Amino acid sequence: MDFDTIVNLSKSRGFVFPSSEIYGGLRSAYDYGPLGAALLRNVKEQWWRSMVKLRDDIVGIDSAIIQSPQVWEASGHLASFTDPLVECTNCNARHRLDKLEDQDQCPTCGKRGTFAAAKDFNLMFQTNMGPVATAENRVYLRPETAQGIFINFENVRRTSRMKLPFGIAQVGKSFRNEITPGQFVFRTREFEQMEMEFFVRPEEADEWFQYWVKERHSWYLDLGMTDENLRLREHESEELAHYAAGTFDVEFLFPWGWDELEGIANRTDFDLKQHTEHSGKDLRYFDAEANERFFPFVIEPAAGATRTTFAFLIDAYSDEDVSGETRTVLKLDHRLAPVKVAVLPLSKKPDLVEVTQRVAASLRERYDIEVDVTQSIGKRYRRQDEIGTPYCVTIDFDTLDDQQVTVRDRDSMAQDRVAIDQLDRYLAERLKV
Ligand code: GAP
Question: From the CB of 259, is ligand 1 less than 6 Å away?
Answer without folding.
Answer: no
